[in-house]
Structure formats: structure tokens, C-alpha cells
Design a protein that fits this description.
alpha/beta; Rossmann fold; 2 domains; 24% strand; elongated
Length: 295
């Protein structure tokens, strides 16, 4: 199923992720957020990711980047948060539409962003969920395939976190999952407490063609249980289209030991992807934390 989604690219240094975690959290219920470092943003093809807005946190971007966007037919709103700005300033000239103080709140930013399509009818429940696992196991590709029914091998590795809005229908009921796709690199470990807060469910993802990623699941399981408690978790063996190093029997044995359902998926063929997201939505509906702002 598809639905209008508002997408914002946040260009941010890894060192600033902790400082702006609260802003990302506030934005996540309304916007699909892709985070890239300035270096990665330079390498990202313009037409690959249709965007409604770009938010640069920190310094300016190189002239090369501005020139590429100037030649593109796409024209998302471009905003920059700067330590040197004392108040919001609309730019009549130059590459940015707005330059704002670095302390700008999400409410201030949201007032400047393009409005989204508001659905009519009954209210749709919103649940925050996590995708956790080692880098390169295909967490971002799972979301991309679910939303677009296509595999994109060019996707850059997640820095810190990407946030996706995934509409799911389970048993005739619409649910909106806010999927926090957590970067698996060790250098982001100190930030993950900020990203885990308020999650209703999660999935541990490993690569069926990489035994090491399977062995490393124990660390992720312990981290989630220690940091956010007994929320429902699913186990996902991804890349089922590749020659496997982990048998289904071995993966199912681990899932039984940890008392969680097991799914096998492929982001190339689409095998198991819709079923996984429906199960994740069901788990999130059962496991929403008491008092969660997304309840």
C-alpha cells in the first residue's frame, strides 16, 4: 500500500547527532528522515531520493553541491541551522531559502516546511519501531523495498539513524509505523539510547549469507533488553536470495530460545518483506509503552 509521505534530508556531522536527537524525535511522527554526512550528501544522486525539504545542520555545503541542485528540476525547500544566526532569516538570494539559529526548535522549523497531505477519516494509530543489527545486513533496504517495491543497491550506509514512515494494514486496520533504522556501526553505540526511547517493538536483523552477523545478534539482543526492556522483538534473516551460511533450522532455534517469531526476507525478490512488516505492526500494537506520546 502507498500513501503520500513527506521526506526530508538532514545533512549532519556524526558529532552533532546527540545534540539534535530531540529534534529528530519530534520530527519523526510527521516526516520520513534520511540522515547523511556532508561527504555522503555530495555522493548521493539527486534524483535518487525525491525530497520535500533539505535541512543542513552546521556549516555550508560546497559549491559543487549547490551547483548540482541548481541544475536539477527538483526544488525542495532548503534550510540551514547555523551557530552564527541569531534569528530566522529568509534568503532572497543564495542557495538557502532560510538560515536559522542552531537552537531552533522543531516547532519553529515545522512552521516553515511544506504542508503534508492530511488523511480524512478515523485517526490512524502511530507506533515507533526499531530495526537493529550490524551494518550492511540490509535494514534500510528492507524499508526501501516495502515502500517502493524495488531494491536500490546504491543506497549509502546509514549514519546514526534514518527514520521512515511506513503505512501498514493489519487485519483491516491501518497503522503508521515510524521505523527508526539504527546505524549498526560501533561508533554510534553511545547514541543509541537516544534513538531507542519510546519504541513499541523492534526487529533484530542479520544477513543469512554472513555467519558473523548471526553471531553478533547476541550483543544486539542484550543491548535492547538492557536499554528498553521487554518490548516485542522479531528475528529477521535477510538476503535470502544469496547463498546462505545460516540454515533455517539454526535461525528458528535461536528465535525459539529468545521467544520471538522468525522471518526470512529478500530485498531483491521481495520474499517475506510484506509479511514481516505486518507482523512488526501487530507486535507494535501489542507492545506500545504506557504513556508513550505515540500511543
Amino acid at each position: 500500500m502507498t500513501a503520500p509521505r513527506r521526506r526530508i534530508l538532514v545533512i549532519i556531522e556524526e558529532a552533532d547527532l546527540a545534540r539534535y536527537a530531540a529534534l529528530l524525535e519530534a520530527a519523526s511522527s510527521d516526516w520520513e528522515i534520511m540522515t547523511l554526512s556532508p561527504h555522503e550528501a555530495l555522493a548521493q544522486p539527486i534524483e535518487q531520493e525525491p525530497l520535500d525539504a533539505i535541512l543542513r545542520i552546521g556549516g555550508d555545503m560546497p559549491e559543487e553541491w549547490h551547483a548540482r541542485w541548481g541544475r536539477s528540476r527538483a526544488r525542495p525547500l532548503r534550510l540551514r541551522l547555523s551557530d552564527g544566526a541569531r534569528r530566522a532569516c529568509r534568503c532572497s538570494e543564495g542557495p538557502w531559502d532560510w538560515i536559522l539559529p542552531a537552537s531552533c526548535s522543531w516547532a519553529d522549523l515545522a512552521a516553515l516546511l511544506p504542508p503534508g497531505s492530511q488523511g480524512a477519516g478515523r485517526e490512524v494509530p502511530v507506533r515507533k519501531v526499531l530495526l537493529a543489527g550490524e551494518a550492511t545486513v540490509g535494514k534500510t533496504s528492507l524499508v526501501t523495498f516495502y515502500l517502493r517495491r524495488a531494491f536500490d543497491p546504491r543506497r549509502q550506509m546509514t549514519i546514526g539513524v534514518d527514520i521512515h514512515i511506513c503505512p501498514v494494514e493489519v487485519e483491516g486496520m491501518a497503522v503508521r509505523l515510524v521505523v527508526w533504522d539504527v546505524g549498526g556501526q560501533r561508533r554510534f553505540a553511545a547514541l543509541r539510547d537516544l534513538f531507542y526511547r519510546g519504541a513499541a517493538a523492534g526487529a533484530l536483523v542479520f544477513d543469512l549469507s554472513n555467519r558473523l552477523s548471526f553471531y553478533q545478534l547476541l550483543g544486539w539482543w542484550q543491548e535492547l533488553r538492557t536499554r528498553i526492556g521487554p518490548i516485542p522483538l522479531l528475528l529477521v534473516g535477510n538476503k535470502a536470495d544469496l547463498p546462505r551460511e545460516i540454515s533455517r533450522l539454526e535461525a528458528e532455534s535461536l528465535a525459539r530460545a529468545w521467544n520471538m517469531p522468525y522471518f526470512e526476507t529478500s530485498c531483491v525478490t521481495g520474499t517475506g518483506v510484506p509479511e514481516f512488516f505486518r507482523a512488526l505492526a501487530m507486535a507494535a500494537l501489542r507492545g506500545v509503552p504506557p504513556g508513550s506520546p505515540m500511543a
